[in-house]
Amino acid sequence: MTEMEIDSVQDEFARQTQSFMQWFRDLPGATFHKDIQMVDLRGHGAGRGIIATADIEPDTVLFTIPRPSIITTTTSSLATHLPSIFSESESEGDPSNDAWTRLILVLMYEYLRGPSSPWAPYLTLLPASFSTPMFWSDSEIAELQASSVVSKIGRDSAEGMIRSRILPVITSHPSVFFPSGDRPSDDDLVGLAHRCGSAIMAYAFDLDSPDSDSDSDEGAEDGWAEDRDAQRELGMVPMADMLNADAEFNAHIHHAPDFLTATSLRRIPAGEEVLNYYGPLPNGELLRRYGYVTPRHSRYDVVELPWGLVEPHLRSALSANYGVTETQWGQVDALLARQREEDEEEEEEDDETFVIERTTPDPESTGLFPPTPQPAITALPEDLTERVKKFLKTVSKVSSSPELKDKPTRTKIQLETVRLALIDRERQYPTTLEDDEFFLSSVPNTPRTNKEMAVYVRAGEKRLLRETQAWIAAELAKLTSSSSDNTSRVRSREGEGEADTPSAKRRRT
Ligand SMILES: C[S@@+](CC[C@H](N)C(=O)[O-])C[C@H]1O[C@@H](n2cnc3c(N)ncnc32)[C@H](O)[C@@H]1O
User: Fold this and answer.
1) How far is the CA of 245 from the centre of ligand 1 (A)?
2) Residue 125 CA, closest ligand 1 atom number
3) Ligand 1 atom closest to Cα of residue 202
4) What spacing in Å lies between the alpha carbon of 497 and ligand 1's midpoint?
5) What is the ipTM of this complex?
6) CB of 465 closer than 8 Å to CB of 356
7) Which residue's CA lies nearest to atom 23 of ligand 1?
8) How many CA atoms lie less than 13 Å away from 336 in the CB half-sphere?
9) Which atom of ligand 1 is the closest one to the Cα of 289?
10) Residue with the nearest Cα to atom 20 of ligand 1?
11) Model confidence at 228, in pLDDT bands (50, 70, 90)?
12) If residue 270 lies in a helix (H) or strand (E), which one and from where to where?
C-alpha cells in the first residue's frame, strides 16, 4: 500500500469510529464516561478498544447500553416479517429455531438493509474478515499439530448448517431480505453468513432475561455466549463488544432490566485499557473463538487424552508384569462389556477423552489473579481415574495375581500407564516442546501471526503434558517411599475400599 492509501484506510477507520460514537451517544438512555475513549489498537493486533484517559475509581459506570439498542430477535424488525420463524409457539420443531441460527438470520437481514438498518453505524465496525482458524489455510491449521482444537474448527459443518438452515429461509423470502430486488449470489450469501456467524462467536453476549436483574454469571461466563445451541437470547451489544479482554481484567458487564452497564472492578489508571473477561478459556479455545492468544490465558490450557492411548499400556503392563493371559483378557472384555450395558454408560467408549488441566484459582473480584495458589496439576482427571480403577478392578477379579488386590500396586499401575500415555500423546505433535520454545524465543511476548499463535497453542499443551508427567513422577516417588517405609501398614490395608483421590476441577471444553 502507498502512504496515501494507508492514510485513507486510517481515515476511514477513524471516521467509522467517530460515526459509531455519535450514533451511540444519541441513543436514548446511553451514557459514555468522559474519562474513557475508543482508540485504534491495530498496532497491537487488537482492532479497536477502549482506554482510560484519566484515572478511574472502582465501581465507576463506564457506559450504559439501553436494551432496545441491542440487536436481538425481538429488537430487529425481521421478526415482524417472519413471524413463523421467530414466534416460539409457531416455530417449535423448526430446524432454524435456535438462538444461534436466528441471530445469524437477524444479523444478515440488518447487513442486507445497508444504510437503512438502525444499526448501520455499528455494523460497519464489525470485522469483514476474521483471523480465527475457521478461515486459515490447511497449512496454517497443520501448525496446530495434534491440538484437539483442530477437530473443533468445524468449517465444513458451519457451511452445511448455513446451506441447510440459513439459505433456504433467506431465498424463500426475497421481498424481506432483498427489497430492492438485488439478490446476491448463493456464494455471497454463504460468505455473509460465515461473517455473521463469526461475528456472533466473537462479539455476541448471552443475555440475562430483562426480568432478572442479575449479576449472576452462573452457567454463562460473564455473559458471553457459551452454549450455542441452547434456546436462549443471544444479542449483539454495541459498545460492550468494543471492549477487548484478557484473563486478568478490570471491567464487568452488568445486566439490568432496561440497560446493560460496564463497570470498573478496580482503579483503572489513565492510559490503561479497559478489559472485559471472556471466561477461563484455554488459549486453543480463545484462538478458535476470538482469533488471538495471550500469555495470561496459558494457565487455563488443556490437553485431551484419549482412552485409546491409556488402555494399550494398561493391557501390556498387566500382561507383562502380572501374568494376565489371553483367556483372562477375554473374560475381562466380557465383564467390561456387561458392566457397560448395566451402567448404560454411553460415554465409556474407546474414543472417550479426558481433559488434562491445572487446578487454577478463580480471578478475584478485582479481576486479578490471586497471588496464591499458583495453577498446578494436583490430580489426574477424575473420570480418567475412575475408568482406570474400574478396569483394574475388573482385571483383579479374573487374575490370579495377589498383587492386583493391593491398592498401592493398582495406583502405581495407574500412574505409570497414564504417564506412558502422556508420552505417546506428546509424540503425536511432530515437533518437540524445545523446538517450539526455540521458535517462540524470537516472537514478541504476544504472538500475532497465525503460525505464531498456532505454535503458542501447541507449546502450551506440550508444557501441560510435561507438567502432568512430572506430577506423576512425584506421586510415584511418594508411593515408593511410603511403601518402603510402611510395608506392613500397607499390607494390613489390602482389600480395603479405595480412598477418594483429589479431583481436578472439571471444566467443559
Ligand atoms: C468483542 S471484540 C472486541 C473489539 C474488537 N477489538 C474490535 O475492534 O471490534 C473481540 C475481538 O477483539 C479482539 N481482541 C479482544 N481482546 C483481545 C486481546 N487481548 N488481544 C488481541 N485481540 C483482542 C479479537 O479479535 C476478538 O475476536
Assistant:
1) 7
2) 9
3) 27
4) 51
5) 0.99
6) yes
7) 46
8) 20
9) 27
10) 46
11) very low
12) none
C-alpha span between 190 and 155 (Å, rounded) = 12
Q: What is the DSSP letter of 277?
A: -
| Residue 192 burial (C-beta neighbours within 10 Å; 0-12, 13-18, 19+) | buried
CA of 61 to the centre of ligand 1 (A): 21
Cα 446 to averaged position of ligand 1 atoms, centre (Å): 13
Peptide bond into 257 cis (omega under 30): no
- Dist. CA 101 → ligand 1 center (Å): 23
CA of 290 to the centre of ligand 1 (A): 7
Q: Which residue from 278, 292, 296, 452 has its CB within 8 A of the most atoms of ligand 1, so it is best to mutate?
A: 292
Encode pLDDT of 468-506 as tens digits: 999 999 999 999 887 666 554 434 333 343 333 333 333
Q: Would you state the cell numbers that stand for residue 198, as one nine-digit string?
A: 463469526
Closest Cα partner for 240 from 16, 24, 60? 24
Give the separation between CA 168 and CA 185, rounded to whole angstroms: 13
Cβ neighbours of 145 (radius 10 Å): 19
Task: For residue 46, report the distance from its CA to the centre of ligand 1, in Å.
Answer: 5
Closest approach atom of ligand 1 to CA 49: 6
- Span 297-492: which CATH code? 3.90.1420.10
Q: What is the pLDDT of residues 66-95, one digit of tens each?
A: 999 999 999 999 999 998 888 765 455 555
Task: From the CA of 242, give the closest atom in ligand 1.
Answer: 4
- Residues 128/47, Cβ–Cβ less than 8 Å: no
Strand residues in 367-424 grouped as ranges (E): none
Tell me, letter by letter, the H, E, C secondary structure of 103-151. HHHHHHHHHHCHHHCCCHHHHCCCCCCCCCHHHCCHHHHHCCCCCHHHH
In the reported structure, the alpha carbon of residue 365 is separated from the centroid of ligand 1 by a whole-number distance in angstroms of 22
Instruction: Classify residue 300 as exposed, middle or buried by CB count within 10 Å of its CB (0-12, 13-18, 19+).
Output: buried
What type of residue sits at position 191? Answer: G
Q: 386-399 burial by CB neighbour count: b if 16+ within 10 A, else e?
A: ebbbbbbebbbebb
Under 8 Å between Cβ of 50 and 80: no
Residue type for 383, please?
D
Residues touching ligand 1 (Cβ under 6 Å) are: 45-49, 202-203, 241-242, 244-246, 290-292, 294
329 CA distance to ligand 1 centroid (A)? 53
User: Structure pTM?
Assistant: 0.89
CA-nearest residue, atom 4 of ligand 1 = 242
Domain ranges of the chain: 297-492
Residues 433, 240: Cα–Cα separation, whole Å: 38
Rounded to whole angstroms, what are the CA distances from 222 to 176, 240, 252, 347? 35, 12, 8, 29
